[in-house]
């Protein structure tokens, strides 16, 4: 048998020819022997018999290994081959004449003449004869193979390698004959265009032509099934694949296209369809954890078909699992749903996969802008879905906290913060809402401990709170003003819930200093644990700088949080004073005495005419005066700090609980939670059934504008009704909305459209609006947000005047001084920088 490898470098080009039958072959034989020479007739018959012998000896073979080991058959072919090669030489070197009609005159008789046939035509005819005989052998084997597999593509794919190895044996047995022209007539080979395929590649293409003719339009389905045969093979290793001869490899080698696609393009299309439809290759935890293993397997499969396809196949795999928004969004979702509370880590099973792999994949393809865009879109969609049409702030922050915790390397933290602040209108609003969210969860956790874990020690309770309280890992947490929002909130809760029996006073306030401060100190200021720092330092060194603040900013923050700690100490001392007073005096009055420096500036109110003229109800006035006497009597030691202080009543911050005659479902009396001014108005109705605005103002000395607001709050809750003569009376048909009643208490909230503190009457009284905050802080935060947004949108920066005008177009009602102050703070905190060379501000 002829060794195929010896001729692999030779190339062969298919010659045009027509499909022929057995009769056509006999006609071809006669053309070789047009003069009826018995010698050539015998030679041609011997060649024909050799092809028939090859077919008969191989057509029923099941195991190619048995055929290769059949020494008798091998010897038979080996003995006949010299004779066959001699026949090839005789047929290609013979002389042959063809008749032609000579041109003669009308009077002359036509004479039959002969012309010598050119040798290259004889050789071409011989090659055509060999091709047709070989085609008959190929067609017979293909039909046998298809019938044996019952036309099942899966069975064909499974047995393809053994069939092709049999085909190689057959072509190898015929090799010396069918390659005779190719080897011995190089000039003719060039003339025929033998430059694209080797002899064996040529007959490989004839094999696929035969299969395609038999299967028709279903042929691509067979090729697809053959690809899936290897895709689903398990386990798949180099050793397993070593003996495989995939169909697509042979098709690629002989440049056999299908559906107008090259073998490579067809493979890539099939692979993409598989990635899109295969559920086990969707974006999920197991897929991402085993990403490198799957990528290696994908490369191994591509190399099985053609080594040059590995890069494109892996690009396709990476594109499917990494280079798209859906995968990024799904990966983030996976992280949210696989939080390990014990390890405080996302992904319950350790894996080296992270969003950094996504980023690196995009960056390696110069697609970093698309990565940022996909992350931004994914975060935006998740936050909008959480916020919803009902503007569910609690659900929004649940989502934000989870998203921030998944993002260990702060890859998309800017997007979270931007879209959070955008949904809530401003940075200051976002901070305020986060404070409320944080404290509501703290309250729930404390109640849960009280109900389910009462046996825990104080240290264990603190640890439980520490492990379960959510932390927002965003930049605005490190704003110097962040602690101010907590101070205002806790101060407000203290004055609203200053009842020694309240959960807030008994359970929540004592843990604030220990629990909240530890969270701030360890998990916000440093932003990353020591364990995470060591784990990521080597692999993610370029990204570690994102975890830490500049030293000067850190120093400022530590000062702020030290002040925060002092603030809580002051709150606890004030509450302890109120408890002690209650225990000694057995009164419902719970006094909170602060140093002026201990009251957030937003709650401080100047001493105006209201404070001097305001009239307390008689029973309240008695309690207040009694408290003053006791306080000064107990702190009259000469030279003490307390003796030098003057108590100043901040009436706008006083709150009262008023017991009503209405009965709650649990059988108790409904309690109204009111401001002091609301209380003073409501208790007047104990003395009279109806009051006018003028008469209420005369009794309380409150401004008309503030009284209108207070009365409106009672009208909104249907506690009072308004008569046609503009007088007010108690609503005898009042039924409280028990959805708003908590622990038997109903808080009557003042309307939000509170007028500014000015008088609209001619009596010169100042407004007594119940203020619990100041607009100055909000203006400052809003200015900072607008400045940052304006600078961020201009790559080349903005000059001072241009920046001022840009901000002025976005918000109104701020002074130049407020603008400069906000700009200075942003520069100090390094949120923006000033380019001295161009005198512009940049992000």
What does the model show?
Residues 429-715 form the Cullin family profile domain. The chain crosses the membrane at residues 166-183. With 843 residues, the chain is mainly alpha-helical. It has 35 helices and twelve strands. Among the domains are: 4-102 and 110-256, no CATH class; 318-576, no CATH class; 775-842, Arc Repressor Mutant, subunit A (Orthogonal Bundle), CATH 1.10.10. The strands form five sheets. The protein has a three-stranded mixed β-sheet with strand order 5-6-10. A three-stranded antiparallel β-sheet has the order 7-9-8. A hairpin with a 4-residue loop joins strand 11 (833-835) and strand 12. The longest helix is centred in the last third of the chain and has 35 residues, at 551-585. The chain is elongated and about 145 Å long.
Task: Describe the secondary structure blueprint for this structure.
Blueprint: H1 22-32, H2 38-58, H3 64-68, H4 71-93, E1 97-101, E2 112-116, H5 119-148, H6 153-178, H7 180-184, H8 186-192, H9 199-215, H10 219-231, H11 238-241, H12 247-253, H13 263-277, H14 285-289, H15 291-305, H16 310-321, H17 325-337, E3 339-340, E4 345-346, H18 355-364, H19 368-387, H20 393-406, H21 413-423, H22 427-452, H23 458-468, H24 482-496, H25 503-524, H26 530-537, H27 551-585, H28 609-613, H29 618-634, E5 655-663, E6 669-675, H30 676-682, E7 690-692, H31 693-700, H32 704-716, E8 720-722, E9 727-730, E10 745-747, H33 775-792, H34 800-810, H35 816-828, E11 833-835, E12 840-842
Parallel strand pairs: 6-10
Antiparallel strand pairs: 1-2, 3-4, 5-6, 7-9, 8-9, 11-12
Helix pairs in contact: 1-5, 2-4, 2-5, 2-6, 4-5, 5-6, 5-9, 6-10, 13-16, 15-16, 17-19, 17-20, 18-19, 19-20, 19-21, 21-22, 22-23, 22-24, 22-25, 23-25, 24-27, 25-27, 33-34, 33-35
